[in-house]
Amino acid sequence: MPRFGGIDLGGTKIQAVIVDEYNNALGSSRRPTPTEGGPPDVAREMATALRDAAKAAELEPAELAGVGVGSPGTVRDGSVLSARNLPGWEGSFPLGPTLERELGCPMALGNDVQVATMAEYRLGAGRLYDSLLGVFWGTGVGGGLILEGRPWRGRGAAGEIGHVVVEVDGARCTCGRRGCMEAYAGRAAMEIHARRLHEEKGRKTVLFKLMEEHGRKRLTSGVWARALEQRDKLATHMLDRAVHALGAGIASVVNVLDVEGVVIGGGLGVRLGHPYAKRIAEEMLPHLFTDSDPPHVHVAALGDLGGAIGATLLVREQAPDGAGSAAAAGVG
Ligand SMILES: [Zn+2]
Fold it and tell me: Between the CA of residue 306 and those of 25, 112, 125, 310, what are the distances in Å?
């Protein structure tokens, strides 16, 4: 029976999974994404994560039929370009060949957000729809599109929903522009803003104390969730602001594309779950031009493993339901 590997390379963590042909997870592992160094250091951690997952599944990486990788940045011919959320990755790095050498099995690469959107469309919360918008709310806010059953990549850069402008001349975004949705809702931008309010303006918050208590170097989704549970005023204010921006940004995209479904994934999206998906849907309403028939808004059903399971679709051209071929053609 063929087994497949998948690696989801995120700005915060590397998630690896081994699945059988029916998408049962046989083993998984996760490691923090290196915050220093460069692409070779990231590649080494990815190989280790995959080896750990293989060990949990009681097999060797070389026994796998293939390993798919969902990576941030632009993916072209096995290389990854300008993955700006990763350390020292402004240029191009041959990630595919490097991992192939390390692990001894065939590799296939795709953009992480497109991979995760395809996974939700094929296997998760988007199964019922022909057109779908995936919103991955984490370090940044990524977007993936399926239109009439096919991924839409534009000229290669489609889906950058995080940089939809929700306020002209608004807050500074991590991309350098102003007023982007991500400047209000992205975890990285929220952390910069929270730190400034706390350190420069003296606003009280448990966020940074929680971060240290849990041995984190960043305000992870878990840290935000715990602060919300403790009714931290600053965290609550910032999440309200994020949801407000997400509602406006997502509704604007829906006004243009009129998709049937919206799936909210990503570290924060999955962690905050259904109550926040519901809030986002409510915040969308005032901005929807056709508000009598809003699209369904779901939380990503494949959860935290979705990106990694989606990545396995990249190497499954012979999959029994044909899922792999479409995904590999569309996403690779
Ligand atoms: Zn931006």
Answer: 11, 10, 11, 6
